[in-house]
Specification:
With 554 residues, the protein is an all-alpha fold. Helix content is 66%, strand content 1%. It has a two-stranded antiparallel sheet. Helix 2 packs across helix 3, helix 13 runs antiparallel to helix 14 and helix 17 packs antiparallel against helix 18. It starts with a helix and ends with a strand.
Length: 554
């Protein structure tokens, strides 16, 4: 009983203190020149008390317009005194809510900031940090574009950043470093991450020298999100199998990635050629060396879909890396493998890659593989060990995958059938390096079925032999990462899906070639949906829109 009474008294006392603090905040008021006098007395007479009270007030109290005016007028008049000892004061002043005030007060803040960084460049990183933090506030997500009030506030921030960089061009490096440091945590929420990326893209438009660095920073963060979405999906799939769980909880990171991809796709559409060249550079530096992502690489598919120049560059570079033809040594085996996966995926899935390119790269891959086999026949080290012959295995896998995936194009006429026969696939299948042994089973099955049906090559005896050997030794771990398997983010997917090709089994006829046409219609008509792949109903590399389920609310 006594304990309850004590809690009640404590609660009443806390409420009283809160009311008193609220009244104090309302009554808080700067007098004319008060801030200036406090700063001067601190500098000239060493009076710490009033200065620390000023710092405390700036931390605890919100400033009304009148207090705001006095603070910045006085601070502007004392700006030459703000040496390194005033770091805390500078940070508190720059953190005051200013961007949504009247144009006159925003102009006052702008004058103070510009005077400060030109008089004391060592305060520039702190100022940049405070400005970029303004992009990380919470808010309500938007569909097509942010509302006018938010855009007006962001515009005030961008105006000051642009003025600082225009006056002091060297500060662009500080700005870029700060932008990377201030990137929100990928789990911080959709709005925070999306608004930050939206504003970095905005920044790239008036500081063109930073455009590629900004895009690289954004893509780095998208890759981090993507890897975590993939890991989360794998974990959920295991938990479902283990505990027979039903339904899915909303995935915050997946939702965030979806909207952030949407912003990047809109940026590519707006900027067109310059942005696409930049994205190609960023892809080669960041996305290509990364294994296991499921969504970010579709920025590249979008790029080569609307720029033939970028398509030529990307496909050629991927082939050069996969085949080790760049003259700088063969390169890391993992990178060559990833390059081969991207090349095969883009040739297979991208609607706007013409058949002439498919034929060109299939021919180039086959010729390279045959040259490799010839070289190995003259060597004493021939074996099917991927440690030594990994690149050969990966390129063979790419050929098998493309022949299976593009079967309707490659076997549609006598002329195309003659082309497939010219690839001399039996030699690849029967060579001592045995690429079928290391190829993912779903690719082996599809390739074997297609080529047997058209009497191009018979793989069954080798498959059975490999199966017996595998059963008698150790089970092989196959890499089932196919970078351009169906895109599963629903909002950005509306842009991506029409650019992708649906896999068609060689036994089936007639389906429309545009990826997800039925799903796009469902997204427009249905009230509840979410997409997720089912490992039980789909095979990696050959997944279709039919293997994507509609699960929860749009």
């Amino acid at each position: 009983m006594a304990l309850t009474a004590q809690k009640s008294v404590a609660s009443l006392m806390q409420k009283a203190l809160n009311r008193q603090a609220a009244i104090t905040r309302l009554k808080f008021k700067f007098t004319e020149k008060q801030v200036e006098k406090i700063i001067l007395s601190y500098v000239t007479d060493g009076l710490n008390g009033p200065y620390h009270e000023l710092l405390k007030a700036l931390k605890e109290y919100e400033l009304n317009d009148e207090n705001y005016r006095i603070l910045f007028e006085d601070s502007l008049s004392c700006v030459v005194l703000f040496n390194r000892d005033f770091s805390q004061f500078v940070e508190l002043v720059c953190s005051v809510e200013w961007a949504n005030r009247s144009p006159e007060l925003v102009e006052q803040f702008s004058k103070f900031v510009l005077s400060l960084v030109t008089a004391h460049t060592y305060h520039c990183p702190r100022v940049m940090t405070c400005l970029l933090r303004c992009f990380k506030v919470d808010g309500e997500n938007w569909e097509d574009s942010p509302d006018d009030e938010i855009v007006a506030r962001w515009s005030n921030i961008h105006t000051i950043i642009a003025q600082i960089v225009a006056i002091m061009p060297m500060t662009s490096d500080i700005l870029m470093q700060t932008a990377i440091e201030q990137f929100p945590y990928y789990k911080a929420g959709c709005y925070v991450n999306r608004s930050y990326i939206y504003n970095l893209i905005w920044m790239s438009k008036y500081i063109p020298l930073l455009k590629e660095q900004i895009v690289a920073a954004i893509v780095n963060r998208l890759v981090e999100m993507d890897v975590n979405v993939v890991d989360s999906n794998k974990k959920k799939a295991k938990e479902k199998e283990l505990f027979e769980m039903e339904g899915d909880e909303p995935d915050v990171v997946s939702d965030t990635l979806d909207y952030c991809m949407l912003e990047m796709l809109r940026w590519l559409e707006d900027e067109r050629d310059p942005a696409m060249v930049i994205l190609c550079n960023v892809f080669e530096r960041i996305i290509l060396p990364t294994h296991g992502t499921r969504h970010v690489q579709f920025l590249l598919l979008y790029t080569i879909s609307i720029s033939q120049q970028c398509a030529d560059r990307v496909l050629n570079n991927l082939w050069i890396i996969a085949a080790g033809l760049h003259g700088l040594g063969p390169g890391a085996l993992s990178t060559r493998k990833t390059a081969a996966s991207h090349l095969a995926g883009l040739l297979a899935r991208c609607v706007r890659v013409p058949n002439s390119r498919l034929i060109h790269y299939l021919k180039a891959m086959a010729e390279w593989c045959h040259s490799y086999i010839t070289a190995m026949q003259e060597s004493t080290t021939a074996s099917d060990n991927t440690k030594y012959h990994g690149a050969f295995h990966f390129i063979c896998h790419a050929i098998f995958y493309l022949v299976a995936f593009k079967n309707h194009h490659l076997f549609m006429s006598k002329e195309s059938l003659l082309f497939v026969e010219s690839l001399n696939l039996p030699r690849l299948v029967t060579c001592a390096l045995n690429p079928l042994k290391t190829c993912p089973p779903q690719v082996v099955h599809a390739f074997s079925s297609v080529t047997r049906s058209h009497q191009v090559v018979y793989c069954q005896s080798i498959i059975e032999k490999n199966t017996r050997q595998t059963l008698s030794t150790v089970r092989l771990q196959y890499d089932e990462w196919f970078p351009y398997d169906p895109y599963t983010l629903p909002r950005s997917g509306k842009i991506i899906w029409p650019l992708c090709i649906e896999y068609k089994d060689f036994l089936k006829e007639g389906d429309d070639e545009s990826q997800y046409s039925k799903m796009s219609k469902k997204m427009e008509d249905d009230d509840y949906l979410m997409m997720a792949t089912s490992p039980k109903l789909s095979r990696p590399g050959f997944r279709t829109s039919e293997s994507v389920f509609i699960l929860s609310r749009k």
